[in-house]
Amino acid sequence: MYRLPPLRRIKAFRSTPSGIERNAMYDFTFEDLVGDEKVFFAEYFDKKPLLRKNAMPGDVRDILSVRKLDELLHMESIRPPYIKVNHNGSGVPEKGYTRSVVVQGVNITDTVVPEKIYELFRAGATVTWCSLNQIVPELRDFTRVISDKMAVRTDVVGFMTPTKKRGYLPHHDPVDLFIVQLEGTKRWKLWDLPAQREGDNASYTDEELGEPAIEVLLEPGDVLYLPYNTPHAAAAEDQVSLHLSIMMRPRMWKDLLRETFEQAASGPEFNQYPHIGALRDAGTEALFRQKIAALAARMDALDSGAELDRLAELGRTMPGSSHGTTFQTIAETDRITPSVLLRRTAAVVEFGANDGGRTQMTVNGHKIAVPTPVAETLAGLEADVPAGDIFPGVDPERATKAAQGLTRLGVLEVAPH
Ligand SMILES: [Fe+2]
């Protein structure tokens, strides 16, 4: 299974194995959001709001800015549900700000009309940018840092509210939120968690909630953490406000147990197809009882630490923060020359016995037979070696071709430089 690298801090410039550099514009850690991690998980996580003034380093407009949203709006590819407009507490129908545009012969019926969005914004509407981590690569980096720690699905939503306007009526959400103020200011009212937390959406009237328990003004760089179901309302002050809500869908015990059950019930002994209707055998009930006992025994025998690690890994690889460099890897494999340094990948390679001068190797589910000296060289490869010299005594051009083949199979990779 692919494991995300330990992400403490995303470098402003990262070097890929090919040396291709990408400018990830913003550099932050999980601690920037929560402060001391131990204190956060012991005292705030799932319990109460946490406000951190001036928590984010650098210029938070590098994460996302009003200017960047102008650019995105004009790209003609942002469509509902990635953009939504909310006015006076209710959603504006999409027809109010979209039109049909033909792209590659296909009629895209809900292409956003920037002028209409601007008109609504001037009239006081809030523009909501949903799942921005599916659109803006820098925000994908952002969700990775959080998903990696929280082991849950993470999505980033941007809220842009005009001066003096309240975006939504007081409500609570089914998700934990990290709110990061990026531009302007926003005054937040928070109420105590309801006695019963259902993990649902709900709206409130001002009368139902009474006086807020906490009132805070968020300024650029401030972070506010809200556990799921915290009732909240927010209003912009004397400037256009832009904030991100990083939404984390809690995985409750019932969700985790369902995953564990799925794993435990996947054994072959649970694959038979019993008839359980009126004409079922007399022994079916007893058999059912046996299956329940067998399942319970399997669950009981689980290594709970290893299972929690597996569940955490599943959470990290949920949609919303995946990333990959396969195109780059394929392109750089094609560019391998005799002088390019190669190394063994982390992939597990099983070597078979020497059979008439050839050895079978199994890697990533592929079986190939290679000359035994090649297998021996690969088995002992520890340092980075130029592709042309990787197989001693073999012509450099031929060695390079063989190394390219082994790179495609995932046995070798270009060494970082
Ligand atoms: Fe909300």
From TrEMBL:
Cofactor entry: Fe(2+)
Q: Mind telling me which Gene3D superfamilies this protein's record contains?
A: Cupin
Single GO molecular-function term?
A: metal ion binding
- Pfam families linked: JmjC_2
- JmjC domain segment(s): 112-265
Q: Does the keyword Iron apply?
A: yes
Which residues does UniProt assign to the signal peptide? none
The superkingdom listed in its UniProt entry is: Bacteria
What are the record keywords, sorted?
Iron, Metal-binding
Q: Which InterPro entries match?
A: JmjC_dom, NO66-like
Name it: JmjC domain-containing protein
Organism listed in the record: Streptomyces seoulensis
